[in-house]
Design brief:
The chain is of the alpha+beta class. 37% of the residues lie in helices and 19% in strands.
Length: 661
């Protein structure tokens, strides 16, 4: 760690803590009278907490203050509510590093990214309550400007949109506009960019920003109001959330208080400002809010739609929204409308994270204990958010005692068909983004002892023991996996991936990294020989005064050799580009703002490679017809020609032929 960065972080910590202390003067909802349908906009203040809450502050500081001091995050804030009162409000570090502006826990806004989704679900439920939307009818009934393609017999419903089970493919390229001015109208964007459906609805989850975008568009259709206006009039204003907005760019009166988002530059070892996401699908991520405003939203949901004298949802509607709506297996957490279930210390949590370049946020509700928390940082550090959330939960929730984890028996399972590679259903099946799954597959192996070994591409693994048919428990942590068998074969693996009920589809062998990696390395080795081993062999032949590999070259033969060498070089260039760009998660993040010139050029090179491979096939036929070179020369040329065609099939398999984005 560089000394200047440590000093900067420490200064930010002390300034942030000082600002937090000034703002933390007692913190509770004063309960002032308000007009019907509108909550008081008075500032929430921290309740005079019992001395035991000082231990909570110490525990929270140990995570967030340390994260700032260590240079892991520029700034952070947290708010905790319990039984209708705010028991903790803290700000840390800088909202703006360059201007040395500290995080003010009362007034600094943080971008929520996907934590917008609970707001979208709340808006949908309000319109369901009013009879303007129905959760169980075909959404095409409401759509006039465009229709969801009827790719499957079952229609898409709002229930499925709100539980990420509509079956849409994933798509990230161009999901975010380069500037706020370039954001397209929601209906127009969805009409042209809504991904295709790749599986029947209602079967498995596949986290979908587009699904929530469509749900938000139905809010616009049913209400006749823009999405941001509807939230302002029906959620923010009634709850007194005067410093919350779903508009991008933010209104001028709020923009100056938005924490600047930062990304860490490994090369310069410093935080670099990053522009605020300008999503073309605002209902999936557009809200920015302060901590006190988020406390109002959390308390409204903890109190079944009521905050103070204001009600944003009827009790029955709130209960329906918070009830489990979908799960892959009864033993696993599921989804509600707008929230994700999670089990912690034997207690049911409702939570939702949000992350984007420059920001991360997390909100958790524990209805059984009247507990809620919101934590945000102005860099993408969701691990820090989760770490401090665990401290809060551990403070309030009873300790269940030591967890007894299973010990692998001599033979725990005789299941067959589980082995193979699995991939989270959230990926682009029909676009160039499919190549990204090389980096994220989880491979399952049955050990001789009958346990399961799960391993990622980097070799990090875990062991699992079967505890009931097709359900396995980790031997190192309290976590479950379940498998689905259909028509005698395993189709999916289900788990709780970092708080999200995730489905992993079992990949066909030809898409698995276990096959693809050695396969493509073999293709590369053969094609690279055209400009490495082949010239060396020809040179050695001349030195030995033997018959040359390419004796009596005609013009056609020279062209054939040149095409082979060029094709070989192009193979290496294409794979290097794919690995450096699509195979690089940091670079893929830049593609959310649209295709880059180098990526477009790479796709043109793929088409050029295909033309050269076909030309090589023609030269191969000519070589055998006219007896070019020696016998071994013709055999070798045939091998590299066939390899080039196999590489064309590889490009087609990963959607890299044409401009599929």
């Amino acid at each position: 760690m560089h000394l200047p960065r440590v000093l900067l972080a420490c200064c930010g910590l002390w300034v942030g803590v000082a600002a937090s202390a000034r703002a933390q003067a007692g913190f509770r909802y004063a309960g002032a009278k308000s007009e019907p349908g509108e909550a008081s906009t008075r500032t929430l203040e921290e309740a005079h907490a019992p001395a035991t809450h000082e231990k909570l502050r110490v525990a929270v500081d140990a995570v967030l203050a340390k994260a700032v001091a260590d240079g892991d995050v520029p700034g952070a804030l947290i708010i905790v509510v319990k039984d209708g009162q705010v028991v903790l409000l803290r700000g840390y570090g800088f909202a703006n590093l360059e201007a040395k502006i500290p995080v003010n826990p009362q007034s600094t806004l943080f971008y929520l990214a996907s934590l917008t989704k609970p707001f979208t679900a709340t808006a949908v439920m309000q319109l369901v309550e009013r009879g303007k939307l129905d959760l169980r009818v075909d959404v095409n009934r409401y759509l006039t400007a465009f229709q969801v393609d009827p790719d499957f017999q079952e229609p898409v419903t709002l229930e499925q949109l709100l539980t990420h089970t509509a079956g849409f493919d994933d798509k990230n390229i161009g999901y975010t506009a380069r500037t706020a001015a370039e954001v397209r109208p929601l209906g127009d964007y969805l009409a042209h960019e809504l991904p295709p459906r790749v599986r029947p609805p209602g079967q498995v989850t596949a986290y979908s920003n587009y699904g929530y975008g469509l749900a938000g568009y139905l809010v616009e259709v049913a209400s006749g109001k823009p999405y941001a206006d509807f939230l302002q009039e029906n959620v923010f204003r009634p709850l007194g959330m005067s410093r919350t907005t779903a508009r991008i760019p933010l209104p001028p009166e709020l923009a100056s208080d938005l924490a600047t988002g930062y990304e860490y530059d490994v090369q310069t070892q410093r935080f670099v400002p990053t522009p605020l996401d300008s999503r073309n699908v605002p209902p999936a991520g557009s809200v920015s809010a302060t901590a006190p405003d988020m406390a109002r939203f959390l308390m409204a949901h903890l109190q079944e739609g009521r905050f103070g004298e204001t009600r944003i949802l009827l009790e029955d509607t709130a209960r329906r929204m918070h009830a489990r709506q979908f799960t892959h297996h009864p033993r696993l957490p599921g989804l509600t409308f707008g929230f994700l279930e999670q089990n912690y210390r034997g207690v049911r949590l409702l939570q939702h994270p949000g992350s984007a370049p420059g920001y991360s946020a997390l909100a958790i509700l524990v209805p059984e204990h009247g507990l809620g928390l919101f934590v945000a940082t102005n860099t993408n550090a969701l691990g820090v958010n989760r770490g401090v959330a665990r401290e809060v939960l551990d403070f309030f929730l009873p300790d269940p005692g030591p967890t007894t984890l299973p010990t692998p028996p001599a033979r725990s399972s005789t299941r067959t068909g589980l082995d193979g590679c699995y991939q989270s259903t959230r990926y682009g099946h029909r676009s160039i983004e499919k190549f990204a799954i090389w980096d994220s597959q989880v491979c399952v192996t049955t050990t001789p002892a009958g346990t399961l070994r799960l391993e990622d591409r980097r070799g990090s693994g875990s062991e699992w023991v079967e505890v009931e048919p097709f359900v396995f428990r980790s031997t190192s942590r309290d976590e479950l996996l379940a498998f689905r068998e259909e028509a005698g074969r395993i189709t999916y693996m289900f788990g709780d991936q970092i708080g999200f009920p995730t489905a992993f589809e079992k990949l066909p062998w030809w898409d698995s990294i276990r096959f693809q990696l050695p396969y493509v390395l073999t293709l590369l080795a053969v094609m690279a020989s055209t400009f490495t081993a082949w010239p060396i062999m020809a040179w050695a032949s001349r030195l030995a005064h033997r018959r040359r590999l390419v004796a009596h070259r005609s013009g056609a033969q020279k062209v054939a050799l040149a095409v082979a060498v060029l094709t070989g070089m192009l193979t290496v260039v294409l794979m290097a580009g794919l690995d450096a760009w699509i195979g690089n998660s940091a670079y893929r993040m830049t593609l959310v703002r649209g295709m880059t010139r180098e990526m477009v050029a790479l796709l043109w090179l793929a088409l050029g490679f295909t033309a050269l491979a076909l030309l090589m096939a023609m030269f191969t036929a000519g070589a055998w017809r006219h007896g070019w070179w020696t016998l071994w020369g013709r055999v070798y040329y045939s091998i590299i020609s066939m390899t080039a065609l196999l590489f064309v099939l590889f490009l087609a398999q990963w959607n890299l032929l044409g401009f599929r984005y």
